Give the backbone structure.
Amino acid sequence: MNSNTIACDAHDWLRWMTGRTLDAAATIPDADFRREFPIGMGSVHATIVHLVGAERIWIGVLEGDATVTMPPTSELPDIASIRAEFAKVRARWDGYLERLTPAECDRVVVRVRDGVEYRQRAIDSIMQVPTHALYHNAQISFMFRSMGHTLPDSSWILWGRERISKAS
């Protein structure tokens, strides 16, 4: 397995995981979707907006725009608008990942945050997105459980097992 394969697999899993999370979030009452918690970004809604925003920021960094910012929750007020934003951002990711080469993985990219310039390899930026999403998905899972809802299993191993069963 090389960096390209690992990166593409990680992003396939990311889509599967966030798809399951969005599907589950679409089933809970709006009051629960927006209920405030002292973890994550403060609510299921805000945390999911943060996830799509992070994907938007990191693809921007990889495409050469180091100044992309996080969207406010008002820009993505509901599941439909969040899904639409994920679709736009992931179309950009699709194009990028299709062109990914070992040389691109090693390219140094720049991220500007709060006026500070950060430099990292492209592959580290690529892998930041799914690892970051897993962290916040665990917070969303806690929020769901606290409200009496269940977030589906989104483990890498379950995704891998489903992938094998679909292939056979």
About this structure: The longest helix spans residues 122-146. The beta strands are 108-113, 116-121. The first strand starts at residue 108 and ends at 113.
